[in-house]
Amino acid sequence: MSTEPAPPPLDSAWRGLVDDAATFPPGNVPLAEAATAHQARRADEHADLVGTFVVKDTDLPALKATPLALSVVLTGGAGQVAGTASLARRLHVAVEGLEIALRDPGDPLGAARRVGAAVDAARADGQLDDHVPVYVEIPPDASPAAWLAAADEVAAREFRLKLRTGGLEASAFPTAATLAGWIDAALDRETPFKCTAGLHRAVRHTGEDGFEHHGFLNVLVATRQAWDGAGPDEVADVLEERSAAALDTADLDRARRWFTSFGSCSIDEPLADLRDLGLIR
Length: 281
Fold this sequence. Notes:
34% of the residues lie in helices and 16% in strands. The chain is built from eight helices and ten strands. The protein has helices spanning 31-41, 81-91, 108-124, 144-156, 176-188, 216-227, 232-240, 268-276; strands at residues 18-20, 50-56, 69-73, 94-101, 134-137, 160-164, 193-196, 205-206, 212-213, 259-264. β5, α4 and β6 form a beta-alpha-beta unit.
């Protein structure tokens, strides 16, 4: 009986690139169904493409003792850090990331400091392991100076940035120039970042919703070029490129040191694009 040869292992540029955010809009898959599908993907030939399973803190009780590696999105402020970490320990679920959005665009620096103090306390109490990365989303409507001050605090705490690249409204999609500035700020501080929302496809395009969507391949190439010294205008040009053939996809594994992953409510779409572009088999 003949068997198909096993596919080659994924290049490091793609391993763990897509965090499974199936329960979030616009996917909105029921939690139990999404968890079952995520676990099933661990046996797929391209399982290494998928990173953590992204859930809200309020989902944790339904995931008691599951074998899933979770990124947990806090639905409140810094005051929920300790309670969420403690609950995860009691439920025996593996938290491999905390994600928290700062809620004060007028004072994101103060909000970032409160998150830092809460994380320090949770780690000192043994509730949150030191290896768990903390991703901080700075309000995109904060003033540029306030945004950068909060980014300084994130870097000083050795947290990571979470960049919102889309959503359900046009205003949720940053311009290429804005996103280029965020990437530059992250790299200037040697701070890894993840992206969230809107990055279902590899290359920039107009979505069915009529919005201009960034492409995750554009972000990878832009990150590598920014790290190599490209200026903001050049980085923005890469983010605006709509032709895959015009994107230089060499050495993208170097970009993954900084662009760690992106959350997507679809795994199939990123996988299909990478296959269609010949970047994976």
